[in-house]
Amino acid sequence: MSLMNRNSEKFTLAGHAGSMEGLLDFPADTPRGIALVAHPHPLYGGTMDNKVTQTLARAFVALGYVVARINFRGVGASEGVHDHGAGETDDMQLLYEHMLGLYPGLPVALSGFSFGTFVQSKLNERLSAAGTPAERLALIGSAAGKWAMADIPADTILIHGELDDTIPLSAVFDWARPQDIPVIVIPGADHFFHRKLNHIKQLVIALWHGDKPASTPDDA
Predict the structure, then answer these.
(1) Could you tell me the end-to-end alpha-carbon distance of the chain, in angstroms, rounded to an integer?
(2) Domain Serine aminopeptidase S33 spans what residues (predicted)?
(3) Residue 44's pLDDT is what?
(4) Sheet holding 65-70: strands in order across?
């Protein structure tokens, strides 16, 4: 059963591999933006109801965004079979286009957890190449070292658990270091952020409206 917030609505979207089931979460007032949330790996129990995914949805609702999630192909009532990220990125792009059709002109944020971070990094790569990059990214438990993550913008909120044994923190540092992207580390957190979920929500809300990093000359 889907984890529903108070202002939630189920929907179905036609995807490249068949119909996809999704969930919309609405803010209390008129949305100020759209947030797409991508779930962890389908072959290891990942669904749009994952607790980290749900936490991201609640954070963006609190920020005033309408939030859209889908079950990737082969998960729940979504048709098709797992496509190792390529088809999932195609489907997430369809969701992006669908939401812009419903809410034209609103900025679109991309967020995800684990495998979902790979999908969102690839989607933002596509959007950037088309001249329409996402407003901002929030990536939790980034899949660095597991999948070929695309480069991400400097203002990305990148959160990882200190004790993650699925995607080691060292792999995230190795990926983020050449991009000069700060990594926010939650002490004592494992890959699924057991007993640490509130840190994710609080950090995303607190940092989202903060000043974005600007390009500056080298420090004197």
Answers:
(1) 56
(2) 50-147
(3) 87
(4) 8-15, 18-25, 65-70, 33-38, 108-113, 137-140, 157-161, 184-186
Name the band, by pLDDT with cuts 50, 70 and 90, for residue 8. Answer: confident
d(CA 141, CA 139): 7
Residue 49 lies in a domain: yes
Residue 216, pLDDT score = 42
21: in domain: yes
Q: Residue 119: give the domain boundaries.
A: 8-208
Decide if 62 contacts 207 (C-beta within 8 A).
no
DSSP string, the chain: -----TTEEEEEEEETTEEEEEEEE--SSS-SEEEEEE-S-GGGT--TT-HHHHHHHHHHHHTTEEEEEEPPTTSTT--S---TTHHHHHHHHHHHHHHHHHSTT--EEEEEETHHHHHHHHHHHHHHHTT---S-EEEES--BTTB-PPP--TT-EEEEETT-SSS-HHHHHHHHGGGT---EEETT--TT-TTTHHHHHHHHHHHHTSPPP---PPP-
Within a domain: residue 2? no
The angle at the Cα of 204, spanning 198 to 206, to the nearest 5 degrees, equals 95
Q: Which residues, in sequence order, are bridge partners of residue 138?
A: 111, 157
Q: List the structure tokens of 144.
A: 């660095």
The average pLDDT across 55-84 equals 94
217: in domain? no
Rg of the chain, C-alpha, whole Å = 16
CATH of the domain at 57: 3.40.50.1820
